[in-house]
């Protein structure tokens, strides 16, 4: 076995120890810098780099290895330029969510969901289950997040704080129509899989900036650690992968919203 293949297996065992199991459906948020540094550059003489032995694609492979042939991997390919009027092309618009997500986009053999801001690449056994999600659907009803819960899926975050990745919070907020977020429309050109262009308008449930709403999230993440809802590592410890059940997270955050206890945890007013 090559050194690289050995490390891919080693990483897959780390992910399994953090809560990813063979056959799972997992939505993965990622920043892979720490993993790359750990294997490629740590413990070297000052100013000297070790020969590269691990790539972003290898890290992606380690998640596929952990999930196995019965698993499903969901990778965010979000690109926020559509909100600024920049055309979106489902075939070519890159991901702005980190190196692993762009490596996934270039790999092929996946379904890319249609929303021009919040699109996802779906790999594996259950990818067809996400095929029919409508173009207009971003975070709300019948979104990737709701179907993830229907499959009793998990959310994993590698090397990122909740504030910097956990879009699932905003799905829950939209479902409950929280009063600190508001609907806003965005219009720009859209190119479909056949490269046919049309001008479309989508609606997102966004922060109420006029009233000074600012997203927090990390305080509520601490609560979920205390409740043992997260497993694995905190983002700045060890390999930095944590995993949570989407359904358990939904129930916990929904309870906070219903109890009107979100201020200071999910958001603040500046």
Notes on the protein architecture:
The chain has one domain (3-259). α1 (3-18) packs across α3 (56-67) and α6 (168-175) crosses α8. By secondary structure, it is α/β, with parallel strands linked by helices. The mean pLDDT is 95. The protein is globular and about 55 Å long. It has helices at residues 3-18, 33-40, 56-67, 99-107, 144-150, 168-175, 218-226, 246-258, and strands at residues 25-30, 72-76, 88-89, 111-112, 120-124, 154-158, 181-191, 197-207, 213-215, 230-232, 241-245, 267-269. It is 30% helix and 23% strand. A seven-stranded mixed beta sheet has the order 4-5-2-1-6-11-10, sandwiched between helices. Strands 3-7-8 form a three-stranded mixed beta sheet. A two-stranded antiparallel sheet has the order 9-12. 36% of the residues are buried.
């Amino acid at each position: 076995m090559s050194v690289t293949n050995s490390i891919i297996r080693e990483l897959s065992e780390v992910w399994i120890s953090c809560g990813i199991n063979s056959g799972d459906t997992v939505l993965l948020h990622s920043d892979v810098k720490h993993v790359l540094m750990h294997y490629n550059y740590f413990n070297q003489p000052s100013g000297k780099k070790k020969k590269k032995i691990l790539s972003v694609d290898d890290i992606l492979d380690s998640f596929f290895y952990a999930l196995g042939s019965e698993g499903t991997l969901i990778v965010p390919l979000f690109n926020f330029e559509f909100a600024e009027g920049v055309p979106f092309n489902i075939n070519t618009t890159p991901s702005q969510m980190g190196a692993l997500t762009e490596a996934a986009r270039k790999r092929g053999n996946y379904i890319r969901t249609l929303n021009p801001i919040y699109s996802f690449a779906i790999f594996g056994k259950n990818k067809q289950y996400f095929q029919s999600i409508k173009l207009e659907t971003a975070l709300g009803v019948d979104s990737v997040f709701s179907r993830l819960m229907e499959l009793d899926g998990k959310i994993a975050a590698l090397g990122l704080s909740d504030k910097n990745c956990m879009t699932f919070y905003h799905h829950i907020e939209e479902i409950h129509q929280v009063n600190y977020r508001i609907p806003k429309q965005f219009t720009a050109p859209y190119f479909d899989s056949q490269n046919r262009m049309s001008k479309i308008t989508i609606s997102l449930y966004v922060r109420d900036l006029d009233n000074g709403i600012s997203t927090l999230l990390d305080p509520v993440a601490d609560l979920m650690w205390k409740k043992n809802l997260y497993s694995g590592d905190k983002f700045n410890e060890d390999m930095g992968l944590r995993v949570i059940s989407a359904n358990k997270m939904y129930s916990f955050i929904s309870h906070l919203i219903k109890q009107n206890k979100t201020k200071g945890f999910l958001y603040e007013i500046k």
